Structure formats: structure tokens, C-alpha cells
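quick one: zinc ion bound model?
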Amino acid sequence: MTDQYSSPTPPAASNSADWDRAPINWTNMILFTLTPLFALTLVPWYGFTYGYSAYDWMVFILMMGFCGISITAGYHRLWSHKAYKAHPVLRFLFALGGACALQNDVFNWASDHRRHHAFVDNNDKDPYSAGRGFWFSHIGWILRHYPSSSQDFSNIKDLQKDPILQWQHKHYLALVLFMNIAVPAFLGYLGGNIIAGILLGGLLRLVLSQHVTYLINSLAHMWGKQTFSEKSSARDNPVIALLTYGEGYHNYHHTFQWDYRNGIRWWHYDPTKWLIRSCEWVGLTSDLKRVSPLSIETARLEMQYRKATERCDRLKNADTLRARLEEEYEQLKHTLDLWAQHRQQWYAAKSMQIHDQLHEKWEKNALRDSYREVRYQLKIRRQRWRELVQSFSEIPQVTA
Ligand SMILES: [Zn+2]
Ligand SMILES: [Zn+2]
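yep, here:
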């Protein structure tokens, strides 16, 4: 079934001598080798010898969330994709949180990420192409000076105008040291244990928060469903969303990268989306971009249609099944268009001030009723479509 998670199938890696001989980035190599090593040894040793208090763990959780959200809501959706606008106070906090996460300054991060979207899966141009395997896309790409991640800020000219980002770029190293040593030490001091603050809020949080973000570049391009598009290796996976503050709906994101949401349903776990939306209520964010429900549903349906057609062609009576599939597809598409029209009219009427005149009320009620009717038709059509596609699995395949 297409609904099952597929196994990792990234594009094949291309290896050239240049790539194998790319010079090692010694700063990153030492940093990203030693920090996990210390986290794996010092943190448990101190815990077993002296113990950590509930306060120390609270500092860890808060700093973990602060770093994670600064990357997903700030570096990613705000700066790389401009999916919404944010108040300077929020931008300042995200700039601090990003330095705390030690994921480079916004200029470098957003420039790499825009290239990732523009050249996704292109092994020579996508800085963290999943085509080069899990290790490369997860962390390998920052351990050497690869040609694909050479610094080129020509794609972030808009961000270079932001004084907060200029300030972060200029003082990045000082901010990293301040956020990773001074802040955890101070929080530890408030709780009565500076070392516990540095170990949990500093070291363990740093290593975990980095690898959680790296999962979006690696695993979210390998494990999950291609719900909206097969143009990239990006996958939708609610399990990865749980670990990455909602970024696991990565197939949706690569299809509609300007949407401030990654999980589009209200029940999709996407705390980044909830934060951006909540901030809108208090005036800290504005101009939230959303893709229209019709575009989303059309992309989903086209994907299902393509997969069903491929399956259909392998079955006995392929021509008859294909004709039925196409008929259902056309009808569902037509109902989808009707639903979008009625939905738009109903929401427009809903937002209008209705004065107490009888015909205005009557018109509004009529629109609501016809919208409900089309919504019901769509539900039935979708059900028929699902049943038809599912019935294909019971039909024997043509043997070659
Ligand atoms: Zn993105
Ligand atoms: Zn991606």
C-alpha cells in the first residue's frame, strides 16, 4: 500500500575524486567529535556521582526548546522561507537561540537552506543532499569543506539588510560562548549548582538539539510518505515531527515551502506552527502565509492518481480499471473545485457584517447550506476513490 512508510531510497550517490579529497574542516571535526564524547561520558558520570535536581532538568528542557524553536521558527520558516513576518523582539530572541544551538549564523544557515531547496537531491549543488547518504546529509557535510557548501551569499541579499542579523553575524562567536557557557552557568548558579547547569543546559542540550535538527536533513529525506510530490526525496513522517518541533512533514514543506505550517491539519504535531500562530494573537508575528486548501488537496489527489495509475497498469484488466480510475478521478476533481468555490463564498459571507434584514440572513443561510452539501458530496467522492484504489490490491497482477 502507498500509505505504508517506504524504506530509505535516496538517489544514488555520485563520488568524484574532488569530494573524497575535500579538506577536513578541523574546527567542526574537533567540535562535533568532542562535544558528543564529553556529553556521553561527563553527563552520566556527574549524574551517578552527584545527581541532578528537577531544576537542572527543567533548565535542560527549557534550553532545548528555546534552541529548537529558534531554528525551526526563526532560521527556517522566518528567515530562509519568509513564511511570515516577526517583531524585532522575536527576531532578536531567535538570533540568540540560533547561536545557542551552534548551527552557524543566519546568513550561512539560510543561504545553505535556500540552496537545499533550489537544488534538492542534486549531489553537486545541494549542500546536504540525501543522495550522498544518511551520514553526509546528517552531519558529514559540515565536517569537510565540500564544494557544495562553499559560502555564497548571493541568495540572501534580503536578509543582509536586517540589522539584527548583521549584528548576529558580526558577534557570532561571542554570542555562541555567551549562550552556551555563561547562560547555562548562570541558570545553574540560580539553582545552586553551576556544573549541573553547564553539563545539562550547556553540553547535553547542545549535542541533542543539534542532532535533532540534523534529522530533518537526513531521516526526513529517507523515511516516510511522499504525500504531495515525488519531485524530491523529502518525506512526511509524524514520528520525525515529534522529535523536530513539527518539521517532520517534510514532503509538504518541500512542495509548499512558503507556508508557515508544516503540519497542515490541526491535529498534526507542529509546535512551531502553534507558536507562530499564538504570537500573531499578541502582535509578535504577522502576514502568515498559507497555501490554499484547493492547491493542497489537488496536489494530494494528483499524487494518489499517479500512484494508482502505476499500480493499475500492472493488474489484469488494466484498461477497464484505468477507465474507472480516470472517471472517478475526474469526478473527484470536479467536486473538489466546487467545494473550493463554495468554501470561499461561505467564508466571505461569514466574515461580512449581517444587519438584521431578512433577505441577508436568508442568503447567508443558503450559502452555508450549499457549502455543507458540497462538503458532504466531497466526503462521499473521497470515500469512493479510497475504496476503488484499495480494491486494486485484491486484483491479481499480470505476470511477465
Ligand atoms: Zn525549508
Ligand atoms: Zn529538505
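Residues 318-351 form the longest helix (34 residues).
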